[in-house]
Design a protein that fits this description.
Layout (H helix, E strand, L loop, with lengths): L5 E6 L6 E3 L6 E3 L5 H4 L9 E6 L11 H14 L5 E5 L5 H11 E2 L5 E4 L12 H13 L1 E2 L2 E2 L4 E5 L2 E4 L4 E2 L8 E2 L7 E3 L3 E3 L14 E2 L7 E5 L6 H8 L6 E6 L9 H12 L3 E6 L12 H9 L2 E2 L5 H14 L3 H8 L12
Helix pairs in contact: 2-3, 3-8, 5-6, 8-9
Length: about 350
C-alpha cells in the first residue's frame, strides 16, 4: 500500500496566518492546531500534516538572519520524517528568506515551498487558501517515487518560481512576485504543469548539509544621479563591513568620476568585496560593455551577472559566514552554486 505523503508546515508569520477576531473585529494569528477548521479542503488530500509555529509570529519587515538560521534548524530536525515542507511567510521579505534557505541547505533533495497571501486567510476574498493548498500539493508531488520539485520555490497566484530568482514587484495585486531572468518552475490551472527542464535535478541519495552561519555585515549601495562623494565614502567605510552590493544602472554601469573609482579601489584593497548587481530586474551585468563599467572590472568589482539583489545579499552572507578564504568567496561569487544566476562568458 502506498504511504500517505507527509508535509511539514512552518508558520513564521505574515498576512496569510491571520483571521478575524469576532469579538474585537481585529486580525490575529490563527491557531495552527486548528488548521483543518480554517482550511477544510486539506482533508481531501489524505496527507499526513504536522505544523510548527514560531512562538511569536514575525512580521515580514522584522525578518532577520537569525530567524533564517532558526528555520534551517527546524527543517533539519524534521527533514527525514517528511516528504516536503511548506513555509508560510510574509510576502515583503519572502524572496530574501527563500534565497537564504536555498544557500543554507546544500544538496537539497526535497521541496521547500514558500507561500503567503496579500489578504488574510480569514477574509472572504483571500488569495491565501489557493496559495496554501497548491503549495501543499506541489510539496507532496512525486514522479516515480522522487519529488517533482526538489528545491526552494515560491508559489504565488498560480505560479511556482525558483526562490533565489524571485522578487516582490507588486504590493497591491495578488500577482505579487516575478522571476524575470528565469522561467517558471510550474503553473497551476486545471492541472499543475511542471517545467521539468527548469527544475533543479539533485544528486541522488546525497544527504543535505545544513549550514548555520551567516555573516550579517553586508550592505547595499544603490547608485542614483547626484550621489555624493561623502555619502559613498561613508557607506564604504562602515565599521566591520565585509561586502557591498553595488546596485548599478542598466548592464552594470556606474559613474566614472575619479573620486568614485578611487573610493571603490581603496575599499577593494582593504579586502571589501564589491558585487555589481543591476538595478534593472531584467537583463544582466556586463562589465565592459560600456565605457562607464570598464573601470569597475579593472579594479576588481565582481559581476553579479543576472542575480537579484535578494539572492546576492543571501549569497554573500552565506559565503562569508562559511568560508574563511577571501579568494574562495570571490571564486564562488563568479559561479552559480544554487541556480541563482546564469553566468555568461
Amino acid at each position: 500500500m502506498k504511504a500517505k505523503p507527509s508535509i511539514f508546515i512552518i508558520y513564521t508569520g505574515g498576512t496569510i496566518g491571520m483571521v478575524k477576531d469576532e469579538a474585537s473585529g481585529t486580525l490575529k494569528p490563527f491557531d495552527f492546531e486548528h488548521l483543518y477548521a480554517q482550511i477544510p479542503e486539506l482533508k481531501k488530500f489524505n496527507y499526513n500534516f504536522q505544523s510548527f509555529s514560531f512562538e511569536h509570529p514575525i512580521d515580514s519587515s522584522e525578518m532577520k538572519p537569525e530567524i533564517w538560521i532558526q528555520l534551517v534548524k527546524v527543517i533539519e530536525k524534521n527533514y527525514s520524517d517528511f516528504d516536503g515542507f511548506v513555509i508560510l511567510h510574509g510576502s515583503d521579505t519572502m524572496a530574501f528568506t527563500a534565497s537564504a534557505i536555498s544557500f543554507l541547505i546544500e544538496d537539497l533533495n526535497k521541496p521547500i515551498i514558500f507561500t503567503g497571501s496579500q489578504l488574510p486567510i480569514g477574509v472572504i476574498r483571500t488569495d491565501g487558501k489557493e496559495n496554501f493548498i497548491t503549495a501543499v500539493e506541489i510539496a507532496a508531488a512525486k514522479y516515480k517515487g522522487l519529488p517533482v520539485v526538489p528545491e526552494v520555490g515560491i508559489y504565488f497566484e498560480y505560479k511556482l518560481l525558483r526562490g533565489n530568482r524571485t522578487h516582490k514587484f507588486n504590493a497591491e495585486h495578488f500577482k505579487a512576485f516575478s522571476s524575470v531572468n528565469y522561467p517558471l518552475l510550474a503553473e497551476a490551472g486545471v492541472d499543475i504543469l511542471y517545467n521539468k527542464t527548469a527544475i533543479h535535478k539533485p544528486i541522488k541519495d546525497k544527504w543535505p548539509k545544513f549550514h548555520k552561519k551567516l555573516e550579517p555585515n553586508v550592505g547595499v549601495l544603490k547608485l542614483f544621479p547626484g550621489i555624493s562623494r561623502c555619502f559613498v565614502e561613508n557607506i564604504l567605510n562602515t565599521e566591520n563591513l565585509k561586502a557591498i552590493i553595488l546596485e548599478t544602472y542598466g548592464s552594470g554601469n556606474a559613474l566614472s568620476d575619479e573620486w568614485f573609482i578611487k573610493a571603490l579601489d581603496k575599499a577593494l584593497n582593504n579586502n571589501l568585496i564589491v558585487l555589481n548587481v543591476s538595478q534593472c530586474r531584467g537583463g544582466w551585468v556586463n562589465q565592459g560593455k560600456y565605457t562607464s563599467s570598464i573601470k569597475l572590472a579593472e579594479i576588481g568589482v565582481i559581476s553579479g551577472h543576472d542575480i537579484t539583489t535578494e539572492a546576492a545579499l543571501a549569497k554573500l552572507m552565506y559565503l562569508l559566514g562559511n568560508y574563511k578564504s577571501l579568494k574562495t568567496v570571490k571564486e564562488l561569487l563568479h559561479r552559480s552554486i544554487r541556480g541563482e544566476m546564469t553566468v555568461r562568458l
